[in-house]
Amino acid sequence: MRADRILVSGRRNARLEAVKRLGVHVLDVRQGDLADAAGEVFTQAAPEVLIDQTGDPDLLLAAMDIIARQGTLFIYDFTGHDIPFNFGRMQLREITVKTSTGCPGTMEAAIAMIAAGQVDLTGAISHTYRPAQMKEAYDILSTKDPTHLKSVIEFN
């Protein structure tokens, strides 16, 4: 899939900027409307796949009006909220909903792709730590530091 056919929405500036450098369209959901942004990016057709990692109930409800007929909504983040989906609308539009709290079996494939040089992580890693800094590495996750993308623990 071409990068210019992808729209990523989120709230973390550093992550949105990293994705934007790849040529992907981005939307800061604090400043714009997902339906409007999707209309601009997907002028000819609605997106076939919408992946949510925000857990935002409003975004998930909006997805039902944005996604293409027979499209797939993939919910990756636990929302912690009840979300009143219109199951009749989902059925009439034949929308598939998939969920996950992880991606079993993908870690080995990702490691192999990185080792083979098939994935360029330049710009994806914002913080590097040594084993003695494990607490600091963990703490940055819980603070939701806006500059944090991904961390690496270097063991050699």
Question: Which secondary structure elements does this structure contain, and how are they paired or packed?
Answer:
Blueprint: E1 7-10, H1 13-20, E2 25-28, H2 34-41, E3 49-52, H3 57-66, E4 72-75, H4 87-92, E5 96-99, H5 106-115, E6 127-129, H6 134-143, E7 151-153
Parallel strand pairs: 1-2, 3-4, 4-5, 6-7
Helix pairs in contact: 2-3
What this model shows, in words?
By secondary structure, the chain is an alpha/beta fold. Helices cover 33% and strands 17% of the residues. It is built from 6 helices and 7 strands; from the N terminus they run βαβαβαβαβαβαβ. Strand 1, helix 1 (13-20) and strand 2 (25-28) form a beta-alpha-beta unit. The N and C termini lie far apart (36 Å). The model has no long low-confidence stretch (mean pLDDT 83).
